[in-house]
Design brief:
Rossmann fold, 9 helices, 19% strand
Length: 247
């Protein structure tokens, strides 16, 4: 598994290049994820943040540029990814973990934020609950878990985003995302599912308008067929869960 992920990482790096990959991801992470992280960390002198699957370190770089006093931790199953991350920022604490058994041996706790961007769809399906519980248990009371996943409620996802990657194992809509959080101890009042926004600016606004026009057509079709079950139809959704304060 480790070799497959290392190879996958290298393929992505070769296909996009360091700068191109950052340009592709950074505007979306700044528009969608950074505001959530900053809100969760406000008024905390040295927030502790854990990221699953940091990839090329785009999110870590964004967070540490905006919250330089953060204590950043990263978990991955591929040494090449963690080595790359440490080279970019030696302050980041990294943990090599090949499976859930090894993960469960890492006693990480007291996190203010746990992040998983484009990771949960790759996990072994039979261990999805284990990883989700671990992520939530790693939080402080009132800490926030943020996970971004492809949205199967979007009509484009099955034939594009998901089918284009053989390492995808799990399917999410806003409904199944809520089910996952609920069965791992998160109450309805402590979760939310958000749509994925385009970055700010004229290009983002134009893309948003075009997407909304196209999706309106699909909504009408689904309503006519009586099969509309979801309200969020963006290509990605963001799961947010807060660890409740125990009574």
């Amino acid at each position: 598994m480790e070799d497959k992920v290392s190879s996958y990482f290298c393929d992505v790096q070769t296909a996009f290049g360091e700068d191109s990959y950052k340009k592709l991801k950074e505007p979306y992470h700044r528009a969608n994820i950074l505001p959530l992280v900053k809100k969760a960390c406000q008024n905390i002198p040295n927030p502790r943040i854990l990221e699953f699957g940091p990839g090329k370190g785009v999110m870590a770089g964004i967070v540490l540029s905006e919250i330089p006093n953060a204590e950043y931790h990263a978990i991955d199953i591929a040494p090449v990814i963690l080595e790359h991350l440490r080279e970019k920022n030696p302050k980041i604490r990294t943990y090599l973990c090949n499976d859930y058994k090894e993960l469960s041996g890492l006693e990480l706790s007291g996190m203010d934020v746990v992040i998983a961007l484009d990771v949960w769809e790759h996990l072994p399906h039979d261990e999805l609950d284990n990883y989700t519980r671990y992520a939530i248990d790693a939080l402080k009371p009132n800490g926030i878990f943020i996970a971004q996943v492809p949205n199967w409620g979007c009509p484009f996802v099955p034939n594009t985003i998901f089918a284009s990657d053989l390492t995808h194992n799990n399917f999410f809509t806003e409904i199944s995302a809520r089910q996952l959080l609920m069965r791992n101890g998160v109450s309805k009042d402590c979760m939310t599912i958000l749509p994925y926004k385009f970055p700010a600016g004229i290009v983002g606004r134009i893309r948003s308008i075009i997407r909304n026009v196209v999706l309106f057509h699909y909504r009408l079709t689904f309503v006519a067929l009586g099969v509309l079950r979801v309200s969020i139809m963006t290509p990605n959704i963001i799961m947010i869960a807060m660890r409740e304060q125990k009574a």
